[in-house]
Amino acid sequence: MKTFIRKWLKERLDIDALDGAVKKQLEKPLPGYIGWFHTLGSMSLFLFISQVLTGMLLLVYYRPTMNEAFESIKYIMTTAYMGWLYRQIHAWGANLMVIVVFLHMLRTFVTGSFKKPRELTWSVGVILFVLTLVFGFTGYLLPWNQLAYWATTVGTEVAGAIPGIGEWMKTLMRGGQNVGGETLSRFFVIHVIALPWLLFFIVSLHLFLVRFQGIATLDRVGEEKEVKKDSGIPFFPHHVLKEGIVFFILLGVLITLSILLPFDLGEKADPLQTPYAIKPEWYFLSMYQVLKYFPKLTGIFLVSLAPLFLFLWAFIDRGRERHPLKRPFSIAFGILVMLSLIVMGTLGYLSETKREFFGKTYEFDIYGVPHQVIESHLSPSDHKET
Ligand code: HEM
C-alpha cells in the first residue's frame, strides 16, 4: 500500500526533492549544550494547538450573546459529553501558555540567543507573547460572568485613558459606551478568528526563522562555529524524543489541574452590581498595580513603554557575549525586571483583601500596604479572606 501511494505521488510530484528537504531538516545537528529548556518553544506550540482543538470543541455549544453565553458554558460544564474536561483544559491551557511562552522568552534572553543574526526572531517572538496576552484578555470575557465583565470594564477603561486615541480605542473595543453584547461579539470574533490565524502565520514565520538560522550556540556574536554532526545533537530522534516526553508531561499536567483545581464559572455578569476590588487576570496584575502608583498618564506611559522596550531589546543589548556568565549587567537587569514583576504582581494580588498572617489580621489597601486590624473590631465573618 505504502509503495503504491509513493509511486502514485512520484508520478505527479517531485517527492524526492521533498524527501531530501525533510531529511536535511531532520538530520540538522543542534548545538551540544542544548537540553530540556530548549523544549519550551515546542511546548508553546503544543499548548497553542491544544487551545485550538479544545476551542473548537467549545464552539460546538458556546453562544456569544449576552443572554446565552453564561448558560452555554454552564451547559458545557454540566451536560455536554466531556464538556467539563475540555473547558477546563482550555482554561488551564490559556494560563499555562502565558507561563510557558514567558519562560521560553526568558530562556532565549539568558542564553543570548536573541543577538545578531536572530534579532528578528526575538522581535517576532515578542509579538507572539503580546498576542498570547490578548488571547487571554479576549477569552476571559467570553463566559460572561461577573469577574470577566468587570475586569473587561476596567481593562478597556485603562485603554480609554491613553491621550489622543484612548476614547476612540475604548469605544472601538466596547462597541459602545459600556461593556455589553457588542463587546462580547467583538471579543468573540477576535478570539476565535482573528487571533488564531494571526498567531498561526506569525508562529510559522518564527519557526521558519529558527530553522533557517539554526539554534544559537553560546559563542560570541560573529564567532559562531558551525555545528558539526559528530559534536552536535541530531534533531531527530534525540531532540524530537525529548519534545515527545514534555508533550506527554504537559498533557498530564493539564488533565491533573483540570480535575484537581477546576475553574469556577462564578455568577452571571450583572452590569448593575459592581463587585468590590475588581482585578484583572494574574498576568496583568503587575501592570495594573504599577498604574495605581502613578498619575494616570505617567502610569500608562510607563506601562506601554515595557512592550516597546522588549520588542527592541535585541537591538538595544548589542554586546557580543552570549554566555550568561559573561553578561553580568544584562543578566542583573533581567533579574531586576523579574523581581519587580513578582513584587508588583504580589502587591496587586494582596491589595484590597483582608488576610491572616501569624494569627493577626491585616487589611491590604489599594497600594498593597498592610494595616493591622484590631481583633475586637471584627465580626466572625470578617475573618474570612475577601
Ligand atoms: C507562541 C509562541 C512561541 C512559539 C510557538 C515559539 C516556538 C519556538 C521554537 C519551537 C523554537 C526552537 C526551539 C526552542 O528554542 O525552544 C524557538 C526559538 C526561538 N524563539 Fe520562540 N516561540 C514563541 C514565542 C517566542 C517569544 C515570546 C520569544 C522572545 C521574545 C521567542 C524568541 C525565540 C528565539 C530568539 C529563538 C531562537 C533560539 C535559539 O536560537 O536558541 N519566541 N521558538
End-to-end separation: 65 Å
**SSE series:** HHEHHHHHHHEHHHHEEE
What is the overall silhouette? Answer: globular
What's the average pLDDT?
Answer: 94
Q: In what range is the share of β-strand residues?
A: under 5%
The number of helical runs is: 13
- Give a count of the beta strands, DSSP E runs of length 2 or more: 5
Helix content: 55-70%
- Helical/strand content category: mainly alpha
Short description:
The chain has 386 residues and is mostly helical.
What this model shows, in words?
The chain has 386 residues and is mainly alpha-helical. It is 62% helix and 4% strand. Strands 3-4-5 form a 3-stranded antiparallel beta sheet, with no helix packed on it. It has a two-stranded antiparallel sheet with strand order 1-2. Strand 4 (360-364) and strand 5 form a beta hairpin. Helix 5 runs antiparallel to helix 6. The longest helix is centred in the middle third of the chain and has 33 residues, at 181-213. The chain is globular. 25% of the residues are buried. Bound molecules: protoporphyrin IX containing FE (HEM). Protoporphyrin IX containing FE (HEM) binds next to helix 3, helix 5, helix 6 and helix 9.
Features:
386 residues; 62% helix; two-stranded antiparallel sheet; globular
Explain the layout of strands and helices.
Layout: H1 2-10, H2 15-27, E1 29-30, H3 40-61, H4 69-78, H5 83-110, H6 119-141, H7 146-160, H8 166-174, H9 181-213, E2 233-234, H10 235-260, H11 285-293, H12 296-316, H13 328-350, E3 354-357, E4 360-364, E5 370-373
Antiparallel strand pairs: 1-2, 3-4, 4-5
Residues 38, 40-42, 44-45, 48, 101, 104-105, 108, 113-114, 118, 121-122, 125-126, 128-129, 203, 206-207, 210, 215-216 line the site of protoporphyrin IX containing FE.
